[in-house]
Amino acid sequence: MAFHPRERSPWRRTMSRREALRLIAGTAAAGGLLAGCGSTPGSSSAPRLVIGTRENPVEQPLFDDRQSIDSGLEPEEGPLRVYNWADYINPAVLKGFTQRFGSEVEVTTFYNSQEAAQKLRTGKISFDVFFPTQDDLPKYVAGKLLQPLNHDYLPNLQKNVWPTLVDPFYDRHSRYTAPYVTYSTGIGWRTDVVSVDVAGMENPWDVFWDPEYRGVTGLYDEYRDALSVGMYRSGITSVNDAKPSDLEKARDNLLELPDLMDIRYTIDGAYSRLPEGNLGLAQAWSGDTLLAIQYVPEGRDPSVLRYLWPPKATQDRVGGMISNDCMAVLANAERPVLAHAFINYVLDTKVALENMSWLGYQPPQKSLDPTSMVDRGLVPETLATAVVAQEDFEMGQITTQLTPEEDSSWQETWSRVQQGG
């Protein structure tokens, strides 16, 4: 039986999807993944991580033994097999695809990136469509787990998607991926609890150190998100490139919070505890903030919810992350033509809007902007600031994969925070 997100318990939903973004070390998983993928005879190069940035975009490598499918083929018979985060696509979208293509869709879910990488590495399971995060993409390409896309089957990519993500920095020319949803990481709050003008602050992240909100404040229980806030507190914006001294500042800033703020480290703070009134201030993904509307208890006022992405409010003087998730076709897909048809279907504007209305997370569609989304009733005017615009990808910092050495430093610092010093 398919459930709406609101019908699921907060713990079930959070632990099955967004905790999963980077709760474990993505690059640690990459190391394990690549260990089983040596160079293959006939391949153009040995597996290697190719990590791009906005300033230095990259083309992901092609391999002779991993070719895209030919053009002009008919979709295979189903069922289409999808490997996705739990609760991360509207069941109505799957039903609509079945009605249009006559193929059932079987969805298998994974708990976190490590689980997905380990299962895909074995080669013993076969799925057609996979939903990786863009910062994990390099390890899947290097491990030869994905096949290049044939854009002849994806007309909606050029037609409907922002040019920024049609030709993204992490996968130039969309060789292996099409964008799924996008989101920023900012600040969510309730106006009936937080009285300060968060958007008017010199550094909005300072609000997490305001003792007026002691006992009602939360950060994500996730090492990169939480440590980033600690760095923003000290004016550090390039957190992907954090030096040991930057991590030390983050650690020291976060260590102030237990006594000063009685801080709560949660995963469901933004979309569940904030609308329910258990928190008044929380670090928030924009998609969780929009999803929060569905968790406001009956009879309560959802208009008290607010969201701010600090780079936009401060003309990029203050740090804040922005990112997106992707869709890809797996190398061992048994129905690759049908998989392309599914990706193209999800990129249809009408389908993308139907998906967002259930999911909360925003597709990077050309036709969407804060005004149009408010006019269509997709987003309340009070949360129009949670809408991501294409130009937002030109400011703030975009989440990228850390090297194993960098990730180890982040993990060690986070461990110190958790241990209280």
Structure report:
Strands 1, 2, 3, 4, 5, 6, 7, 8, 9 and 10 form a ten-stranded mixed sheet that branches. Helix 2 (26-35) packs parallel to helix 4, helix 8 packs across helix 9 (244-255) and helix 8 (223-233) packs across helix 17 (404-419). The longest helix is centred in the C-terminal third of the chain and has 16 residues, at 404-419. The chain folds into two domains: 5-182 and 324-372, 3-Layer(aba) Sandwich (D-Maltodextrin-Binding Protein, domain 2); 183-321 and 397-419, 3-Layer(aba) Sandwich (D-Maltodextrin-Binding Protein, domain 2), CATH 3.40.190. The chain is of the alpha/beta class and 421 residues long. The chain has helices at 10-16, 26-35, 91-101, 113-122, 137-142, 155-160, 163-166, 223-233, 244-255, 257-261, 269-276, 286-292, 310-313, 336-346, 349-359, 370-375, 404-419, and strands spanning 80-85, 105-110, 129-130, 178-190, 217-220, 264-266, 281-285, 305-308, 321-329, 397-398. It has 17 helices and ten strands.
Give a brief description.
The chain has helices at 10-16, 26-35, 91-101, 113-122, 137-142, 155-160, 163-166, 223-233, 244-255, 257-261, 269-276, 286-292, 310-313, 336-346, 349-359, 370-375, 404-419, and strands spanning 80-85, 105-110, 129-130, 178-190, 217-220, 264-266, 281-285, 305-308, 321-329, 397-398.
Short key terms for the protein model shown above:
421 residues; alpha/beta; D-Maltodextrin-Binding Protein, domain 2; 2 domains; ten-stranded mixed sheet; 34% helix; disordered N terminus
Q: Layout of SSEs?
A:
Layout: H1 10-16, H2 26-35, E1 80-85, H3 91-101, E2 105-110, H4 113-122, E3 129-130, H5 137-142, H6 155-160, H7 163-166, E4 178-190, E5 217-220, H8 223-233, H9 244-255, H10 257-261, E6 264-266, H11 269-276, E7 281-285, H12 286-292, E8 305-308, H13 310-313, E9 321-329, H14 336-346, H15 349-359, H16 370-375, E10 397-398, H17 404-419
Parallel strand pairs: 1-2, 1-3, 5-6, 5-7, 9-10
Antiparallel strand pairs: 3-9, 4-7, 4-8, 4-9
Helix pairs in contact: 2-4, 8-9, 8-17, 9-17, 11-12
